[in-house]
Amino acid sequence: MVETGRKYVFDFDSTLTQVEALDVLAEMTLKGKSNKDEILMEIQNITNLGIDGEISFTESLERRIRLLEAHQRDLEPLIEDLRQKISKSIKENKEFFHSHAEDIYVISCGFKEFIDPIVADYNIPSERVYANTFKFDDHGQIIGFDETNVLSSHNGKIECLKKLDLDGEVQVIGDGYSDYVMREAGIADKFFAYTENVHREKAATHADHVAPNLNEFLFVNDLPRKISYPKNRIKILLLENVHPDAFDNLSNEGFSVELVKHSLPEDELIEKIKGIHVLGIRSKTQVTKKVLEAADRLLVIGAFCIGTTQIDLIAAKKKGVVVFNAPYSNTRSVVELAIGQIIMLMRSVFARSTEIHQGQWFKTALNSHEVRGKNLGIVGYGNIGKQLSVLAEAIGMRVYYYDVEDQLGLGNAIKCTTLEDLLAVSDVVTLHVDDNKANKNFIGEREIDQMRDGAILINLSRGFVVDIEALVKALRSKKIRGAGIDVYPEEPRSNGNFKTELQGLENVILTPHVGGSTQEAQKDIADFVPNKIMDYINSGNTVDAVNFPNIRLPKQNNSHRFLHIHDNVSGVMAEINEVLAKFEMNITGQYLSTDSEVGYVITDLDKDYNKEVVKALKSVEHTIRFRVLY
């Protein structure tokens, strides 16, 4: 660590704490007053004018205290409230304040009465806290402040820091322009605009460095910190208009997130992915070997959908890129659409609806049937197939299923040993197969011929699974009397014009790949996938990864964590442990998981260690990727 006699000067409001303390005090003292909101807004406006240097601080302070109508007895609950509002990254890095206490100062235009007890918890003594003090009347009412204190005057922070005459490099960390002026005056060497709680453009524009959190400040200075690499430096690219909750979840965790509404073709993605650590996609973006070769920082890919054939999983694994998907989140949405289409097609609802729209009244029971007592054939008895099986039985259908894997039937569902058996018995055939390329034209002319005359076909799985030309022919000949199609062999990258041979055919429901596109499903996916991504980034967990050895890790406890991904060849683990032994590392836990191609070993160690061990581990032959977490 760099120890060069630096001094660190922190602001208090909106830096060490998430809030402006006088605003919180105002919330307390004005509670129950009819004009509370107007006064609070006025206090906040006056605060911002003072912070940005638009009015003198003395004027700002005087006007706010007049509006507060606060009493000495209000300070204790204020202090307790502020203790709950310490900035997140400040709280995470309490150890820094304890280990560097002699070099840390607080210079604030707030008040010592509430600052001292807060920062004392962080080992900052009162004598290194420079702030204003209140004046009280004989009844304890706050009536003003000590006008002789330099911090009550305009640019008082400059005079305060001058008087301190600190040795060494002086760095100021604060959220406002009133903190920057110490740098402008030449008495501070660097100014860090602290934006974790509020981004003040005027301060950020003039800063030597913008620090979205304390981890960034500590990283720049190579100081002890809670995490090895600031999350704001981890760049995440989300494509294809994923649910905004995904953006919010990842942004709130501190990552830098960019959201693009559409997919990108290979050449554009190759350029865009440089410097990206996390890529989030849906089904249209193709993550090819070329894209992965261009991904110089990529750690993880999140597929905000079920399928992953759009990703070269083997190439990703060889690069040490972990892939997660959402295999369960949209199951209910797909099943509900399937049930709805089955009923609509069996009742010929769309044909009757079209007639009404065209001004024709044609009341008839022709080609209109109940689903009760009909045979439903489910091809693919996975998560979706099973849930559809249960709901279909609940509305009186007899369920048959076929799957290439051995699956246990739920309820009264009957297993078919061959696809032919299922097609021959089913009044409705619904497809829920995976995205294996071998499933191309899984339902073609031969399979359609094996279906019952007048049967219905539903495809909510993959577009390439059904031979569209054969389906069109069967619909026109009435071999198949209805179809529900949600997926197509070729789909556009974004919304717009679309052509298919199925357009205009009677009793055919066409939807634009919306089987899983409900607000509920997309919200669930936007929670599930980011949680997997964050768990891997933050702790190294790979549970539910689709291309990587799965390993569930215990929580780190006051230790560093080494993550080593390597080719699964003999001798690598021996060499890793030999390096750890050479540098006399005290191992508190070690976890290994492998598949036929890669090994993933996680080693937890005591916090103090020789940094040369990192270079040595990176140099181990067959290493794919190495990371340090702490």
Written overview of the protein:
There is one protein chain. Helix content is 35%, strand content 18%. It is built from 24 helices and 24 strands. Helix 10 links the parallel strand 7 (190-194) and strand 8 (209-211). The chain is elongated and about 95 Å long. The two termini are 15 Å apart.
Uncertain segments:
none
Largest sheet composition? 7 strands, parallel
As a whole number of angstroms, the C-alpha radius of gyration is: 32 Å
| Tally of strands | 24
- Per DSSP, the total helix count is 24
> Which shape, going by the Cα principal axes?
elongated
Q: Fraction of residues in helices?
A: 25-40%
Work out the oligomeric state of the chains in this entry: single chain
Can you give the mean pLDDT? Answer: 93
Strand content: 15-25%
Strand order of the largest sheet: 16-15-14-17-18-19-20
Could you tell me how far the N terminus lies from the C terminus, measured between alpha carbons in angstroms?
15 Å
Structural class: alpha/beta
Helix-strand blueprint:
Elements: E1 7-10, H1 21-29, H2 36-51, H3 57-68, H4 75-83, H5 88-92, H6 94-99, E2 104-111, H7 112-120, E3 129-132, E4 134-136, E5 142-145, H8 156-164, E6 170-174, H9 177-184, E7 190-194, H10 201-206, E8 209-211, H11 214-220, E9 235-238, H12 244-252, E10 256-259, H13 266-272, E11 278-281, H14 289-294, E12 300-303, H15 313-318, E13 322-324, H16 331-346, H17 349-357, E14 375-379, H18 383-394, E15 398-402, E16 414-415, H19 419-425, E17 428-431, H20 445-450, E18 455-459, H21 468-476, E19 480-485, E20 508-510, H22 519-539, E21 560-567, H23 572-582, E22 587-594, E23 598-605, H24 612-618, E24 623-629
Parallel strand pairs: 1-2, 1-6, 2-3, 6-7, 7-8, 9-10, 9-11, 11-12, 12-13, 14-15, 14-17, 15-16, 17-18, 18-19, 19-20
Antiparallel strand pairs: 4-5, 21-23, 21-24, 22-23
Helix pairs in contact: 1-2, 1-3, 1-4, 2-3, 4-7, 12-22, 16-18
